[in-house]
Amino acid sequence: MSEKSIDYRLVIYGAGNCGKDAYWYYGAERVIAFCDSDENKWGKVFLGKTVISPAQLFENKYFTVVAIRDTKENERICDELNRNKVKVTSFSEIEEPIFLKLLNMIDKRPFHMNIETYNYCPMKCVFCPNRILTRNECVMSMDMFESIICQYISDFSGGPLGIGSMQSDFLSDPLLIERVRFLFEKKSNLWIYSTTPLLSMAKYSDSELIEVFRIFDFLEISAHGYDRDSYRKMAGVDGFMIFECQLERLNRLIKRNNLKVDINILFRAYDEKEYINSEFYKKCISLFNVSEVKTSFFSWFGTIKSDDIPEKATIITRDNSKEAYNCVVPNANIAIQSDGKVVGCGCIDWLSKYVIGYVNEQSIDDIWHSEKAVAFRKSFERRKLPDICKECALYCPITELKDVKLEDYQPLDGLYYYASQKNEKRETYLKYE
Ligand code: SF4
Ligand code: SF4
Fold first, then answer.
1. Band of the pLDDT at 17, cuts 50, 70, 90?
2. In whole angstroms, what is the distance from residue 142 CA to residue 146 CA?
3. What is the mean pLDDT of the chain?
4. 329 CB under 6 A from ligand 2?
5. What is the mean pLDDT of residues 357-372?
6. Each residue of 110-122: b (16+ CB within 10 Å) or e?
7. Tens of pLDDT along 82-128?
8. What are the phi and psi torsion angles at 194 (to 5°)?
């Protein structure tokens, strides 16, 4: 019998983020109260439950789940509860099997696959290396594209598929309509997503766009400004009027044709307050979900400098030299460029500095299991950091997968972080039901 299915009520020790995860895992009905060592929290309400003191817990001897991320502190509290004859388990013991299950999945397959079908973007965003460095323009052939998709489905049973998700825009792809017709036939094995600045949508007819968006599960739209000036400052082009018009058009198309694509808008900004107070921002939140107003940007291994971006926006770097955990990005994702090169990191390595394979010479399965790919994925634990990882602010430890919301994760649920956030929404829904 699994821990979760045993029927008894409990107290969660730790009224913080880890406690919140535990609360989500066990469900509101089973949680009697929270307990915390911090006396400032005693008697207060956390997630609808009262926070009690350790003394109250010792007296009542409720079954307790200790949910504290700090391992030493977690152990100390478990010992103390044991000494006071309180039956106890540690939340990390529950998270660990989920983590191991996901690591085991990565040994066999990537969670996601990104294909950059065309390596061009018409924009000149001030925070993007596209403005400074150029790549030889390349459109992936339909033969190569179809072969990759067929392998993804036959060897890995399909899953999330990003098209044009690196430094490019899938709506600029000259073969887009052919590709979406092919993908429509394979849709039952694919969860399709992409990111776009949306301007190139203007060149398609309504009927073409319906064909495109009926295959999509998730689309992230980059919004660079709230009026013509702010847009020009961030995007480097005078595109605000087209952007606003296409955003409204997309909303109409989705509603009229009952399209199921989930839309998220991400603002790339230089002044959070100005953006949030604008009429355009208010319009955006009335149409779609807005996830973030982002004012900090990566340096792209030193390519983008503070002088390149407007005042108030910042460039972030970090020193990853002491990080012991592998980065989750190359472990979750396989990234294929338009010329068939497979790169170690699909988020950052758009200049193909760390190639782990070539789809015109090897199968995707062979590439994923090759020593080059494994070496890139495990570069942090092997203390052999590729140059592009050394200062990368996108680094995210693989322990991010210790997430109870991923307990039942299967790739066809979508991007792993999307699936996790979806479950977060479920939590909110449960709370206010
Ligand atoms: S829209 Fe995206 S890919 Fe294009 S220039 Fe801007 S940040 Fe780069
Ligand atoms: S640290 Fe940065 S460059 Fe390296 S794998 Fe992670 S996201 Fe990619």
1. confident
2. 6
3. 91
4. yes
5. 97
6. bbbbbbbbbbbbe
7. 999 999 988 888 888 999 999 999 999 999 999 999 998 888 899 99
8. -165, 180
Write out the two tokens for 429: 């829904």
- Most informative mutation of 119, 137, 167 for ligand 1 (most atoms within 8 A of CB): 167
- The C-alpha atoms of residue 302 and residue 108 are separated, in whole angstroms, by 34
DSSP 213-227: HTT-SEEEEEE--SS
Q: Which of 128, 195, 198 to mutate to test the pocket of ligand 1 (most atoms within 8 A of CB)?
A: 128
**Going by C-beta distance under 8 Å and a sequence separation of 6 or more, which residues neighbour residue 239?**
123, 197, 199, 224, 231, 232
From the alpha carbon of 376, which atom of ligand 2 is closest?
5
d(C-alpha 304, C-alpha 315), whole Å = 8
pLDDT classification of 424: cutoffs 50, 70, 90 = low
DSSP assignment of 100-125: HHHHHHHHH--SEEEE-SB---S---
Residue 352's pLDDT band (cuts 50, 70, 90)? confident
Nearest partner of 222 among 282, 162, 165, judged by Cα: 165
- Ligand 1: centre distance to CA 224 (Å): 10
Model pLDDT for residues 256-294, shown as the tens digit of each residue? 999 999 999 999 999 999 999 999 999 999 999 999 999
User: Which ligand is in closest contact with the Cα of 376?
Assistant: 2
Q: Helix or strand or coil: residue 356?
A: strand
